[in-house]
Amino acid sequence: DLGPSGKPTHPLATAPVGAPPHSVDGFVKEFLHELNTNQGVPLSLSSVNDQYMALASTVRNYLMARWLETNRKVHENKPKTIGYLSAEYLLGRQLGNALLATDLSDIAEKGLALCGIDIATLRAQEVEPGLGNGGLGRLAACFIDSLATMDVPCVGYGIRYEYGIFRQTFVDGRQVEQPDTWLSLGSPWEFPHPEASVQVDFGGHTERYIGEDGRERVRWVPAWNVLGVPYNYMVPGYLNGRVNTLRLWSAQATKAFDLQIFNSGDYAQAVRAQTFAENISKVLYPEDSTPQGKELRLQQQYFFVACSLRDFIDHSLEDGFDLHNLPERVTFQLNDTHPVIAVPELMRILIDEYDFEWDEAWDVTRRCFAYTCHTLLPEALEVWPTDLLGRLLPRHLELIYQINDHFLAEVREAFPGDELRAHHMSIISHGQGVRMAFLATVAGTKVNGVAELHSQLLRDKVLPDFSALWPEKFTNVTNGVTPRRFVRLSNPKLSELINDTIGNGWVTDLERLKELEPYADDPEFRAQFAEIKAWNKHRIADLLRARDGIDLPDGHLVDVMVKRLHEYKRQSLKLLHIVSLYEQVLSGKIAASEVTPRTVVFGSKAAPGYAMAKETIHLINKVAATINADPILEGRLKIAFPANYNVTLAEKLIPAADLSEQISLAGMEASGTGNMKFALNGALTIGTDDGANVEIRKLVGDKHFFLFGMSEPEVAELGAQGYNPHSYYDANPQLKATLDLISSGVFSNGDRHLFDMVVENLKNQDRFMALADFDSYVAAQAKVEERYADQDSWMRSAILNMARTGYFSSDRSMRDYLQRIWHTTPML
Ligand code: NBY
């Protein structure tokens, strides 16, 4: 503990670290100290970035005593820890959350004002760490927030990408990606620990030899290696004194690797080796559903998982710890299949390094892992070609074959003579490769989906043979979102109203929002609620004006669809609704004055290689430009598509929404989490019976939710019959007129073919059945307009949405994981 030099004699050396005084004066003193000693500038000469960096360090200092104390307690009490393994963490800005967790917001604001600084300017200086694509990465961030707040020991493990999710720009309506240089102005929230670096091996071959005990053993002789440098981030619990750790790994060349080449005299080659190693954590892959079978991606996956297991075993366990007891000390939660290579890695460590017998090693391994699946799309399931895997990780491929052999023996025992079943269930599919979801299912103690419908479909459609073999392995944990970031921080006025009405217990016990239900009938409360909604609309209007030069009209229904661009999510269906409204006005079927004044806001990134998604973005922008410029709908319909939707924008946009668009084809969206954030901020949902929408609707009630479209069984039936989108086009004159308007060239300067890719696909393929749901969607939108016309009734529903969706706190999700999967309880 105290290092090699013996007992310290200075009394301060063993005193617990204290936080700076919780007062404006104490804060100012600390802030100026940080500005002077960390940034090396006096206040008078400091830049905004200097001030932001000093502010971040100051807040960090307040958290430090708690972090040290948390770590001391973990060291002393050796509780079971959750090792959350995730290739993505979409954290959002850190400053506001840290201020909230330390209850310093007011003190900081006052202190900075006394220094002549507006804290809002410093908040705006922070570049969010965008180390994730979308829902999956944001979920990981919500979960670690909840675990810290619930006093559960957890280490989040992941990758410190030098470039996170690309920065989206639009050039003539088309998406153009720019690198996300989030580290360029310094990163005040991270603590690098190069001294705790871990070596990770790759490539080479394996050798068999006879060990001292006379048994045959295997030795992996790797060809090259890299160093993983840990960067620690604080994960503060909300006002509870706990600070957990998020440990992100950065890749560096190892000394040995350099030296070898330096000694050969090839300096340039040695420097290239450095670059080669550092490439591993260079950039986040921007695909959010179709995995790229790229070698570098597998390197990333193995890199962070190998670092994390090594780190946990070497640094979290006491010397001489018997690894047979590892499951008592950790569950590694696999956030989708991206970290599944951890399974053969733990087997390798136990067998090759710790001399475990196969059965012992497997028993330990399977009790250490649990797997969360986040998809239903077949193309989203990761499969690694065996030759690639064998080249990069030869020992791991052998172990996977062995795991598969043992597993298939179990299948044959359970279903004698059913060779076809064994074939279907094989982890290794001939011709394809290693099916990572199967490996995860075989290895995990538990397998969970992320909403009730999804978990059901996972059992019935994606992994039916596995659920037949191990029914008790499958469970559901419905996703949740952190109320700290997505209500308390993002909607300060609403938070104040809730506090004034029911006290502030809801921030850590979100079901208490139920106590607001009676206030839905209180005209005074409704008026306050409506005023806050209007205030949030002005706030986003101000932001979009400054950020994007977009002007939002006053007094509109704010209709928001924000999520990654994917055909299954059906942004094109939203677009058809908009174009249909426009077409009806253009052709005189309805008067512009009959259209409910509405602003539709889109926010969405497309995977750079996903042509259809990019074309859809292009079309949305062109439709927006045309309609926004056409006086015929002036003041009636406005389309806003701010570029680079991210967590920071979401925090301002979601609280301003009246209507939440959750319109995926039923059976396709595993859960959705944006849907929860909108409901909690008092938006009504227009949505299909998909993902967590199903549970939202059940809780808020049919009267307060606009359901439309086919149900999942109806989708399956239509698919089985043979879906023909063209028949809908032919049969529905309004749908035909809508698609024809796009093909007419009005949105493309007369070019009738510019959007052929999107239009022809809808007419002829339409894999996600947008045309089949069009009528029902348009009818539901008409109901929306009708309801919105009665503001009292709308606000009542909005309040009930908020009051009834406390279930979707990620604190509740974590309680479910603790009970159903991790079998552990919060502890101090
Ligand atoms: O995970 C999302 C689901 O689509 C959404 O329904 C769910 O609410 C959310 C949290 O459970 N999935 C998701 O965001 N997936 C990815 O971001 C992703 C990223 C990378 C890859 C695959 C999926 N990949 O293969 O590289």
Automatic annotation (TrEMBL):
Reactions catalysed: [(1->4)-alpha-D-glucosyl](n) + phosphate = [(1->4)-alpha-D-glucosyl](n-1) + alpha-D-glucose 1-phosphate
Under the heading InterPro entries, the entry gives: Glycg_phsphrylas, Glyco_trans_35, Pyridoxal_P_attach_site
Alphabetical keyword list: Carbohydrate metabolism, Glycosyltransferase, Pyridoxal phosphate, Transferase
Q: What class of enzyme is it?
A: transferase
CDD domains given in the database record: GT35_Glycogen_Phosphorylase
Cofactor(s) the record lists? pyridoxal 5'-phosphate
Q: Which Pfam families match?
A: Phosphorylase
Instruction: Give the function comment from the record.
Output: Allosteric enzyme that catalyzes the rate-limiting step in glycogen catabolism, the phosphorolytic cleavage of glycogen to produce glucose-1-phosphate, and plays a central role in maintaining cellular and organismal glucose homeostasis.
- Output this protein's name: Alpha-1,4 glucan phosphorylase
Organism encoding this protein: Tessaracoccus palaemonis
